[in-house]
């Protein structure tokens, strides 16, 4: 955990030879390390903690679900002994994108490659993809379906690599 952006950028490079592409933080699977600017808040820490869990338990996880689940817990509470995502700062921009007709269908979102998800497109940017993925996970959580979806998706991933058929 680094105290500010300058410290984060400097030490990510000194320790791992990395130049971060995000001001928040990242998980380096190769170094088995979470690297983050804690000045952005504790939500970053919780977000990044999800990634090694996903890597260990669902290695074939597509980017939309990996980032959607991690983003879900950026704002969270403990509820009945479990982590529970709350609405957060991503919601207003998502609502605006919905009003403007700029969101992707679930099938399109769930089919994005890592390059497309992180790089953005002419239609949207990666921040919007994070928000869409996050609030799809939030919806499943609020309907009591997130754990069921996760288990079924992991079990079906060989025939449903994006999770779209499992979602339907």
Main structural class:
mainly alpha
Overall radius of gyration: 16 Å
Portion of residues within helices: 40-55%
Shape: globular
Number of strands: 4
Strand content: 5-15%
Detailed description of the structure:
This protein is mostly helical. It is 54% helix and 10% strand. The protein has 9 helices and 4 strands. The protein has a two-stranded antiparallel ribbon with strand order 1-2. It has a two-stranded antiparallel ribbon with strand order 3-4. α2 packs across α3. The chain is globular. 29% of the residues are buried. The model has no long low-confidence stretch (mean pLDDT 93).
Key terms:
single chain; 168 residues; mainly alpha; 9 helices; 4 strands
Structural topology:
Blueprint: H1 5-16, E1 25-28, E2 33-36, H2 42-57, H3 63-72, E3 76-79, E4 82-85, H4 91-99, H5 106-110, H6 114-119, H7 126-142, H8 146-156, H9 164-167
Antiparallel strand pairs: 1-2, 3-4
Question: Briefly, what is this?
Answer:
This protein is mainly alpha-helical and 168 residues long. The chain has nine helices and four strands. The mean pLDDT is 93.
């Amino acid at each position: 955990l680094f105290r500010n952006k300058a410290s984060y950028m400097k030490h990510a490079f000194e320790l791992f030879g990395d130049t971060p592409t995000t001001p928040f933080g990242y998980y380096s699977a190769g170094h088995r390390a979470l690297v983050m600017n804690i000045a952005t808040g504790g939500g970053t820490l919780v977000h990044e903690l999800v990634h090694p869990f996903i890597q260990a338990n669902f290695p074939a996880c597509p980017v939309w679900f990996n980032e959607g689940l991690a983003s879900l817990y950026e704002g969270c509470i403990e509820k009945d002994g479990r982590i529970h995502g709350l609405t957060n700062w991503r919601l207003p921009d998502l609502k605006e994108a919905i009003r403007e007709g700029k969101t992707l269908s679930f099938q399109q979102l769930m089919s994005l490659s890592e390059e497309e998800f992180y790089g953005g497109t002419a239609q949207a940017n990666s921040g919007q993809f994070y928000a869409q993925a996050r609030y799809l996970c939030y919806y499943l959580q609020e309907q009591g379906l997130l754990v069921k979806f996760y288990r079924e998706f992991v079990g079906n991933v060989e025939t449903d690599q994006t999770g779209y058929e499992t979602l339907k």
